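Team,

Forwarding the record for the chain on the shared tracking sheet. I've put the sequence and predicted structure together so nobody has to dig through attachments.
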Amino acid sequence: MAWLIGILLFVSHVLGIITAVIALMSSRTSQGAVAWIVTLVSFPYIAVPIFWTLGRPRFYGYVSARGERDTVLRQVLQRYRGQMESYISRPEAVSGRIRAVEQLAMMPMTRGNRVDLLIDGDATFDSLFSGIRQAEEYILVQFFIVRADEIGMAMKRLLIDQAEHGVSVYFLFDEIGSRGLPGGYLRDLEEAGVRVSAFNSSRGWRHRFQINFRNHRKIVVVDGKLGWTGGLNVADEYLGRVARYGHWRDTHLALRGPSVLALQEAFWEDWYWATGDILALGWRPHHQESDDQHVAIVPSGPADGRETASLLVQHAIHGARNRLWVTSPYFVPDHGVQDALILAALRGVDVRVLMPERPDHLLVFLSAFAFLPEMIQNGVKIYRYQPGFLHQKTLLVDDHTAMVGTVNLDNRSFRLNFEVTAFVPDKRFAANVHAMLEQDFINSREVTERELAERPMWRKMLSRATYLLSPVQ
């Protein structure tokens, strides 16, 4: 028996060393690489299965799927992007900072769009349901969380009704975020003719351990003409109907114009990964001449060759000269973003970060307090929203640019989640976001350096300990 135990221990340590080499070559941060290597070599029998479940830095299956479908899908994309030429933003219409955004998005910025700011759940679902009722050809629906509660059932009835009237409906959800969704909900959709699929992050035996990745995108597209994205999922708490959270503060966008096709392309790729099917959709741009706002849609995720979401946020911060206001329910940014915020404050920018007062993910919430004292000492102002739970993901740069999307300022959104952001360099839109955030700051309180210094030692230690876990939170 002893010899068997010896063999198992030997094999475990060999696997630990092999996996440590993989972690060394693939980890996206030096801190993450060191942590994994030490753990894998010291405790391989525990660390090896955890690494292959939680520690993989890239969504390799999605990367290979992109290669598999390049020939067919790229032919379609080339045709549609060929039609986009007259709607691509000209260099003189936008500043030079836009080139980096387009490179990160791997999509062009387009003009001829209309962007409507949707504040909180009632405005969002009124707009969303109204748009779905206008569908004539197809509806694309993708959410991280869908529940079979009041608003979820209303969504189901609306999609079934449209499917029964001959509209093609595609419904994509994340199986982890929507893990409580009953099978009957999905069967009702399928029986009515709705095409339904989980995102299937662990699809196929080679990728069965990729359970730590999530598809956090919220996308709805109607006929390639109307699109929505932002912070809201399909659940009653997003309308403030759950007592635990109280008032739910969130922001969404309604889009018209060529930018809708970029949202459609993000859904299209996700659907291909999940099902292997290439959807036949309309790809003709619909120009909004009267509004003519510039928009770049920036999908990001663990299949990217670069850290798209983190780089986009850093790029926006470095471009600020007077004002940089950020809202995020989960604020545990990487060191690059932390340093960029501090540098902006040091050069005199009004840097404000708005977080919730009430947490819904305790570990992430506690982690932020490990580095907030340093940020406040360097001039970054931290606010906590008072009336309820704050869930919006927005960023305002000076008086000319705003971003709204699904990206939280934490490691999960930067490296583990599939996300999408609307980058809008438009003064009218920025003014609307400015007015919205001014009201949010009125409903918030500023965190002081003294308040953080007077916390009990056990809370300070707990914050530091939870911060060490931020790469997998």
